[in-house]
């Protein structure tokens, strides 16, 4: 586990935003990504009959749709232990293999940071 106080303030911000999205929308996951300009994009799990997207893939799609050229970092708040290969691939496609993905529990404590690649 990573001490949340030891996180860079910008990383702490995206974890907080991801946690808020999860709670506000009552969804299994919340996610936030930060682009190359410092803008953040926040999303929750999409669970429609015809469309299923994880929170992280939704946040990446929102960033792309908003014109982001790359990602500096990503965060997901989930009860799961990690993130799927598909989620990491979405982050990697926009941010590169070294882009950190912070995985936090519902309490906001970062359990692990993994590279997108």
Structural account:
The protein is of the alpha+beta class. The chain has one domain: Cytidine Deaminase, domain 2 (3-Layer(aba) Sandwich). It is 33% helix and 28% strand. The chain has three helices and seven strands; from the N terminus they run H-E-E-E-E-H-E-H-E-E. The strands form two sheets. Strands 2-1-5-6-7 form a five-stranded mixed β-sheet. It has a two-stranded antiparallel ribbon with strand order 3-4. Helix 2 runs parallel beside helix 3. The longest helix has 17 residues. It is globular. The protein starts with 8 loop residues before the first helix and ends with a strand. The relative contact order is 0.21. The model has no long low-confidence stretch (mean pLDDT 95).
